[in-house]
Amino acid sequence: MEKLRKALEKVKKEVEEEKVEIGPKPQTQEQPVTVLSKVSPAYTQSQIYEVDPLFLIDNHCIGISSESMEIEFYKMLRTRIIQKTEPNGWNTIMITSALPGEGKTLTAINLALTFSREFNHTVLLIDCDLRQQKIHKMMGLPGERGLLDALVDNRPLQEIIVWPGIEKLTVISGGNTITESSEILSSPKMKSLVSEIKSRYSDRYIFFDVPPILSAADAVAFSPMVDSILMVVQASKTSIQDIKKACDLIPREKFLGFVLNRHKIPTKSYGEYYYRKVS
């Protein structure tokens, strides 16, 4: 228990050290400075609520911790995504699955956290499951307002975007739910919103957590709005038949690939494999 407590305290300290001051710092012409720090979004254009890193870890949001073994897999996934999207100028990614319970929301959160560690990019994570909002619950964020507040009630983006106290990451999750979700996600208002957030920051990646393909029409309806698509499949659970059905319903030219979730690898063999490959 003492070892675990120290590890959690270390994570919390890392998060504290990565926080930045809101607003630009003045620079003089007499002392020009070459900025090599990470690029950060304008937090003054969002609601501020600092998450508890221990809460994130308890909910398996391991992207917050550099101590996690799994973080290396997310870093490799991040590298592959950047290699496939940057040459095409793509920055909007829909994360979905074939069926419920395959871990797409947790994958979306951990990918967003991992991308926020990357030097050149900022991240916006959007909960597009309009029937059941989960991201704010898993991250310990307030959920008074979300995507529907912008699409239905015309709330400005700065009222629904939350900065969770993690540098270069912002989140939209919460608010009301609706059963006619596929109609909302394919609406002209949604198209306009995606276009606005896509072009607001040139260095931004936007991840959309969308309901499973075979459980609702949402993913199929929303797919024309994004540049690319990732599908989460669960090891030893998702059938080949369901994967094929899901793949047939999304645009092939936008499909980046699969994320194999809950695939267990012994710690020792993982460590030997990883360090042997990079040495």
How would you describe the overall organization of this protein?
By secondary structure, the chain is an alpha/beta fold. The protein has eleven helices and eight strands. It has helices at 2-18, 53-58, 71-85, 104-116, 135-139, 147-151, 181-185, 188-200, 218-222, 240-248, 267-278, and strands at 47-48, 92-97, 122-127, 162-163, 169-172, 204-209, 228-234, 255-261. Strands 5-3-6-2-7-8 form a six-stranded parallel β-sheet, sandwiched between helices. α3 packs across α4. The longest helix has 17 residues, at 2-18. It is globular and about 45 Å long. The two termini are 33 Å apart. The model is unreliable at 18-38 and 267-279 (pLDDT under 50).
List low-pLDDT spans: 18-38, 267-279
SS field, number of helical segments: 11
User: Element order, helices and strands?
Assistant: HEHHEHEHHEEHHEHEHEH
Total DSSP E strands = 8
Please estimate the helix content.
25-40%
Strand content: 5-15%
Rg over alpha carbons: 19 Å
CA-based shape = globular
**By helix and strand content, what is the structural category?**
alpha/beta
- Mean pLDDT figure: 83
**Largest sheet: spatial strand order:** 5-3-6-2-7-8
Q: For the record, give the distance between the C-alpha atoms at the N and C termini, rounded to a whole number.
A: 33 Å
Taking the sheet with the most strands, its summary is: 6 strands, parallel
Quick gist of this model?
This protein is an alpha/beta fold and 279 residues long. It contains eleven helices and eight strands.
